[in-house]
Design the sequence.
């Protein structure tokens, strides 16, 4: 836990506004660096951690400017949300996934949803590949490519593009909590191998190389498994959000 600046927030408010802002910035800068490095170690190597630090610092400055202690008694949780949102926005801005790639992702998740409904269980990789009409190794490679960057880092996009960037509100906090509960339920339905890799990646914060060493597989295979898990989770959440089909009436339409 980071040490709070000396004195209470009431004492800080008694100081000049510039002094209060400086204290909050000094409190937040270590958070920025810690979050940037933690996120960078799980991203492709071409991502520069300094870019993440720069984006996080901008998020911190916006958090300092908008911080209202009457609404948010603690600055640190508030700042973390804004910093993380700014870093994710930076990653999305540099997202190299093409329009075709996004359409392809939608096609894959739709296929997974249809197979889950038809089979009453999570489909095997081979079954998904067969339905898509491609070899399984091509499907594995595609799964890894479609879920790189921010989508893999935090399943970004599942909750909406601006979910992390907005000022926390009771409604937003409730939505985030609901999303987490749904994710936990969706993860529980995944095959054991995928659950194990997700736990190592998100909970233990292992890199893909470290996970490969633990499981005795290559780093590229870990990337494929993470991609597969992400596509399945997206499919599960989209299936829950899809409107229920309307029942057709058996009677004749009135003339």
Sequence:
């Amino acid at each position: 836990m980071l040490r709070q600046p000396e004195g209470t927030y009431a004492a800080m408010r008694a100081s000049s506004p510039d002094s209060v802002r400086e204290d909050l910035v000094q409190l937040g800068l270590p958070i920025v660096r810690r979050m940037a490095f933690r996120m960078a170690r799980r991203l492709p190597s071409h991502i520069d951690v300094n870019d993440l630090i720069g984006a996080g610092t901008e998020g911190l400055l916006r958090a300092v400017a908008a911080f209202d202690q009457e609404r948010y008694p603690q600055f640190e949780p508030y700042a973390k949300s804004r910093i993380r949102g700014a870093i994710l926005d930076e990653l999305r801005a540099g997202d190299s996934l093409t329009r075709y790639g996004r359409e392809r992702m939608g096609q894959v998740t739709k296929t997974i949803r249809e197979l889950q409904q038809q089979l009453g269980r999570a489909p095997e990789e081979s079954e998904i590949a067969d339905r898509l009409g491609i070899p399984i190794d091509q499907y594995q490679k595609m799964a890894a490519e479609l879920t790189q960057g921010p989508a893999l880092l935090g399943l970004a996009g599942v909750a909406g593009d601006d979910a992390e960037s907005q000022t926390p509100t009771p409604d937003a906090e409730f939505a985030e909590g609901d999303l987490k509960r749904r994710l936990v339920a969706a993860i529980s339905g995944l095959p054991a191998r995928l659950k194990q890799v997700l736990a190592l990646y998100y909970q233990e914060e292992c890199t893909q190389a470290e996970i490969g060493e633990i499981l005795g597989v290559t780093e590229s295979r870990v990337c494929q498994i993470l991609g597969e898990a992400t596509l399945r989770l997206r499919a599960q959440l989209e299936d829950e959000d899809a409107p229920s089909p309307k029942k057709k009436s058996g009677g004749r339409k009135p003339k």
About this structure: The two ends are 71 Å apart (CA to CA). Confidence is low (pLDDT under 50) at residues 1-11, 154-168, 246-255. Residues 17-40 form the longest helix (24 residues).
